[in-house]
Specification:
With 140 residues, this protein is an alpha+beta fold. It has a single domain, classed as Alpha-Beta Plaits, CATH 3.30.70.141. 39% of the residues lie in helices and 19% in strands. The two termini are 19 Å apart. Bound molecules: adenosine-3',5'-cyclic-monophosphate.
């Protein structure tokens, strides 16, 4: 039996404002992910700073945290084999200027900051990021 893996995905404020949520959810299902947790919520800048603590001190940190608290987001717990790598492939490059055709960022992102979606980049960050938004008992 193949091992299932979990990752944390976020539909960011820019994509929610563009009403891209449904299209992005369709892409997630079409790519074979199971959605095992989903919330729409707004976070404040302190919560964004906690989530993105690994980027603290980088030149884009304050602006990123202000942006992430600028409106509703949708947080998703995704599951499939190779979920972390497959979700990153489906998102496309962080900078939409470099994103491949067919990726979510190519379609919906407008800049390196307003880049529509987020995904965990490794198993340890996925564990931290999933626990940030989903207590374990909430996941199906
Ligand atoms: P994300 O995958 O959520 O991880 C960190 C975020 O920081 C990234 O997407 C971008 O939205 C944002 N960001 C802004 N500027 C930069 C930059 N120069 N390099 C990397 N990430 C950036």
């Amino acid at each position: 039996m193949k091992t299932q893996q979990r990752t944390l995905a976020i539909i960011k404020p820019d994509a929610v404002k563009k009403n891209a949520t449904g299209d992005i959810l369709n892409s997630i299902y079409a790519a074979g992910f199971r959605i095992i947790g989903m919330h729409m919520l707004e976070i404040n800048t302190e919560q964004a700073q906690g989530f993105y603590a690994v980027h603290a001190g980088k030149p884009f940190f304050n602006s990123l945290c202000t942006f992430m608290s600028s409106g509703p987001i949708v947080v998703l717990a995704l599951e499939k084999e190779s979920a972390i790598a497959d979700w990153r492939k489906l998102m496309g490059a962080t900078n939409p200027a470099n994103a491949e055709a067919g990726t979510i960022r190519k379609k919906w992102a407008s800049s390196i900051e307003s880049n529509a979606v987020h995904g965990s980049d490794a198993e340890d960050t996925a564990r931290f990021e999933l626990s940030y938004f989903f207590p374990g008992y909430e996941l199906f």
